[in-house]
Amino acid sequence: MNAAGVGSGATVDLDGDVDERRLAWVYLSRVVQGPCAPLSALIASVGVCEAARAVREHELPAALRGPTAARREIDSAARDLETIDSLGGRVITPDDEEWPGWRMLGLDQLDADRDREAAVPLVLWARGPLSLRTASERAVAVVGSRCSSGYGMQVASEIACDLAGRGWTVVSGAAFGIDAAAHRAALAVGGATVAVLACGVDRPYPAQHDRLLAAIADSGLIVSEYPPGLTAQKHQFLARNRLIATLGDGVLVVEAGMRSGARNTVKWARRLGRPAMAVPGPVGSASSAGCHRMIREGEALLVTTAADVVDEAGPLRLPVHEGAAADPAAHLRGAEAEVYAALPAIGSRLPRELAQQSGLDLATVRAVLPGLELAELVGCDSDGWFRTRARRP
């Protein structure tokens, strides 16, 4: 019986009912624990329920006998679903509306014979209120060194903060250093952030980031292709990197040593046709040597600001036609325009921060803000000043 192709884009019949299919997806996710191109091909040809039956009964082509041998007799699908439900999470399958199918098309076009991690994930386990499909519609992956410098942390925070303020989702891997700085910056301005793990979503990794991951689960999203309870293994990080690259419109590297794992994420971005970008550092910094090499060898584009990132990762800018919605601040000039432009689309800023961002002195910023408030363009609360239009439904 035919089934919906796993990333194939084909429109075919579904085998089994909704519950049966979900249990089949979850069973197979536990059996292979990660990407498995031969299994994805089998599902695309016979359907997920029939593929699960074939795995259980060991009626498989030679390419699948090895990958499924160790765990094919372990069927913990119902228990896994209970576990993820108890965590307030969910499993996202290719049958679900939340599945980011158009993002996965890039992986589906890669040659799995060349790299076994190139396969589309069977399912994604998730914790958090964001919809994965919606969150990945406009997203940038921000990655870099775990042993980051103060310079790297500052740059990563500033760029991620600005991206989140512009309405972009910040995707990263919740690791020490640059990853953590990017997540925290997005959270600080009330922006969207997605953490992609190389272990089960119930396993904080690294353990020291349990509070950070809890904060992401509260307002953002934690995702993994690995079932609950699975601990992180070295090879799983390389597979995880392809998902970080897949879920973003581009990959930004802020600090990377010569042997940094961030370069692996850049490799995936280039194979997927996504722009790869890198921030330069001090010329003698070992922490930025990998970025400099990627820039020099044409593997990544040099960027220094969020605006540079948006120029590379964002959609083409089309001319505004007559009748299009007018910019409510188009009439502003001088200091008023500069202060308004310094306010993020999401989140708030204090007057001192606005002064630093706009280049104006603090007294001028404080003098301008009441006029913008009277014009109903800005408002203020305990967190600072914000754009009122951005907060209206």
UniProtKB/TrEMBL annotation:
Domain Smf/DprA SLOG residue range list: 91-312
SUPFAM superfamilies for the chain: MCP/YpsA-like
The family this protein is said to belong to: Belongs to the DprA/Smf family.
Protein name, as recorded: DNA-processing protein DprA
One Pfam family linked to the record: DNA_processg_A
Entry-linked InterPro entries: DprA, DrpA_SLOG
Gene3D superfamilies assigned: 3.40.50.450
Domain of life: Bacteria
